[in-house]
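User: Fold this; tokens only.

Assistant: Input:
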Amino acid sequence: MNYLFPNKASTINDDDPRPTLVGQDGEYIMEYSLGNPMFETYGVIDTGSDFTWLQCLPCIRCFNQGDLDYLHTDFNVGLHAVDCTSPLCIQIVNPSVTEVLCDADNCQCKYMMEYSDGSTSAGDVFHTLLRLQTTPGNYVGFPRFIFGCSRETTGDFSTIASGIIGLGRAPASMISQIYDYIDGKFAYCLVPMGQDAVSEMRFGQIAVISGPGIIYTPMIPQILTSDNYHILMEGITVGDVYVPYLEGDKAVLGTILQANFMVSFDLERKKIGFKKMNFSFLEALDPLY
């Protein structure tokens, strides 16, 4: 439970978020909305990082994000700057955030992140209303969602998204901030790149999978310096050949390596479920209804 970000209790209803995913260039992007007026954008989903950010104007150095608009912080009244002395600013200190800084002039909370490939994002921290799609044209809202407005990026980022959606376990991740509403449950099925089918994220009770062919494995306590999702991997079967895995635990990351699987995370029961999918996405989802 996340006491800094209280939300409504989880219920089984039509309000469970289920935004669609788009796969391109080896990454999957998800639509979400921020602020007032509602600003719609797309971010790359990443279970290996713990902070959500998007590029904002005014910007010192921004990468090309194609046809997507940039969020202008001067013209969205629904954005609220986070004070660097507030618990919300302190909360974003986690392994994925390199530094939390203060602006000496106005005490604006700032962040600086660096990824494993050397790419960086730096900017200001805000909180606002987050909206996630439930059904086409309908959304559920989460108040006081904290995120980063990137003013300067370096390195290699997707040109079909405005930033990163952090789905890790740290307190400032999107999952942690909406934890109570979704009861610690989310799932995704990543359709392989190039297929004419739509992937989908699922949050809440609709993320629970059942039926034949499902394998659940317990999560193990994360390494002290990591907020990733870890399971114990014993081996890999390639055709009829079993290859033992001798490296111990393995982080579960949202990449194309999980394509053709429904992956369900249940953080309340500390387990992760896998279901092999060998057909179209809509057919694969039948057991969920």
